[in-house]
Amino acid sequence: MENSRHTLIKAMQSKDPAFDGRFFIGVKTTGIYCRPVCPARTPKPENVDFYKSASAAAHAGFRPCLRCRPECTPGNAAWMGTSSSVSRALKLITSTIHQDLSIKDLSLQLGMSDRHLRRLFSQHLGASPMSVIKTVRLHFALRLIRDSSLSMADTAFASGFKSIRSFNDTFKKRYGKSPLALRKNRQTQKEAHFTIHLFYHKPFHWDKIYKFLSFRRIPGVESCENGKYKRTIKVGDQTGMFEVRHLPDKQALELKIHFIDHTKLLLITEKVKSLFDLNAPACDIDDYLLNKSGLKKYTGMLSGIRVPGSWDFFELAMRAVIGQQISVKGATTILGRIADQLGEKVRGFNGLTRAFPSADQLCDADLTGIGLTRSRMDTILSLANCIREGKLDTSPYADPGQLKKDLLVIKGIGNWTAQYIIMRTVKYPDAFPEADLGLLKAVSLGTSSSDKKQLKHLSESWKPWRSYAAMYLWSTL
User: Fold this and answer.
1) Which of 157, 264, 372, 409 has the fewest CB atoms within 10 Å, i.e. is most exposed?
2) Residue 276, pLDDT score
3) What is the pLDDT of residue 234?
4) Within 10 A of 408 (CB to CB), how many other CB atoms are there?
5) Is pLDDT of 121 > 80?
6) Which domains does the chain have, with CATH numbers?
7) In contact, 234 and 346? CB cutoff 8 Å
8) Given a cut of 80, is residue 322 above it in pLDDT?
9) Confidence of residue 100 (pLDDT cuts 50, 70, 90)
10) Whether residue 34 lies in the annotated active site
11) pLDDT of residue 333
């Protein structure tokens, strides 16, 4: 462990929430692994081992605690700014949990050797990629068992298990109990929706991210009313909807998903977590940035700000292209027209009537009369065709450096647009559109070339969290 054993013991004894997710405690006398905030009696230091991840503890033979529920630990990728490869690999695992990819398959998609992938996982997570995959499946299954009324068969397949037998065997091996024995409410039913709580680490500035999304909501596709964010979604050939509201007392977001195909629940859940940036190590980012030159005066006022993600790559990329030289409100109006004219109709979602069109749907579309200039229409059509032809990796685990290069090849997409896209789609924490007029204004600079160079120089000290620095500055305007 990077921290000394003495420090970890002190953190365990204090039950400080700041350490939740940073390490896990394997209790040798019980064979159980816990979070640092576990309400159970604190074990003696000589009876515990410490692990970097839940996967590492499970691989060492410990089973998850049923009281502190490690499967509910808020994401806390404290290494995210220094190991984008691990972050990309975890996104790939959750996106392909039903595909049974081998380590070789994973490493090939990430553009590295399987040996290097294993080394990175060992260094940052203390576990092998296969151990992580097994833990992801187990944890998501347990959340569905405890928090939903899905049937056991639906729960098994939604979590990536290939058979009911392997599902039952895994739970009996890990918990010594059948899956059904772990369910609080024994009644199960077929559902087209389910509710789950997504926990986060404080600080979390809900008002800022809610207002950010509300100001940019696409009519007919998104809504923000009474503190709830709702939007239509399309996964594969199926449409659905989800809604999110803040539960500050539980330090969580309540997510309600209305979608028929249960095998997509993990994918949808992870995309929502990315949309609200729940895995960000917010305390570390705040401590690092709010003492830096140009940001010190915002200490306290901006604590807990996150970088909003996106539901769909193409939708976000279109927003960036359309909004290059017009207001946010103007861009949102145009996106609403596109959704209304070209998006698939949906029903039964309280005013949400359209799913935003895909790149395939727009490749041959006529965009005249929507309010776009000819150059913007050409850029959007080029973008759509690049996606259809596979020239752009639009997955959440895409390499941000390569994605930026590929975007810049498209006529009409410059550095500002590319930086904004990789900031919000693949959640690159160090994206920074230094020529942005709002950023220049926020640090009291003009728009000359020398001012832009000065902002770029100032931002060097904000690495590797410049995406968050940008959100801090935009939030002051």
Assistant:
1) 409
2) 97
3) 95
4) 13
5) yes
6) 5-72 (3.40.10.10), 84-147+149-182 (1.10.10.60), 279-309+429-477 (1.10.1670.40), 313-428 (1.10.340.30)
7) no
8) yes
9) confident
10) yes
11) 96
Could you read off the pLDDT of 155-199 as tens digits, one per residue? 999 999 999 999 999 999 888 889 988 887 655 555 567 889 999
**CA dist., res. 338 & res. 414, Å (int):** 23
Strand, helix or coil for residue 343? coil
Mean pLDDT of the chain: 91
- DSSP 8-class letter at 73: P
| Alpha carbons 254 and 244: distance in angstroms, whole number | 6
Query: Taking the CA of residue 257 as centre, how many other CA atoms within 13 Å lie in the half-sphere pointing to its CB?
Result: 29
Asked if 430 is an active-site residue, the reply is no
- Predicted local confidence at residue 155, as pLDDT: 92
Strands (DSSP E) contained in 217-296 are 222-225, 228-235, 238-247, 252-258
Q: Among positive and negative, which fits the CA dihedral 33, 34, 39, 43?
A: positive
Question: Which tokens in the block code for residue 459?
Answer: 């931002």
Distance CA 203, CA 303 (A): 6
Residue 425 corresponds to which tokens in the numbers above? 């789609």
Residue of 154, 312, 399, 436 with catalytic role: 436
Q: Encoding tokens for residue 264?
A: 């997509």
Task: Choose the catalytic residue: 34, 65, 68, 386.
Answer: 34
Side chain identity, residue 279: N
Q: Which helix (H) or strand (E) holds 194?
A: strand 193-199
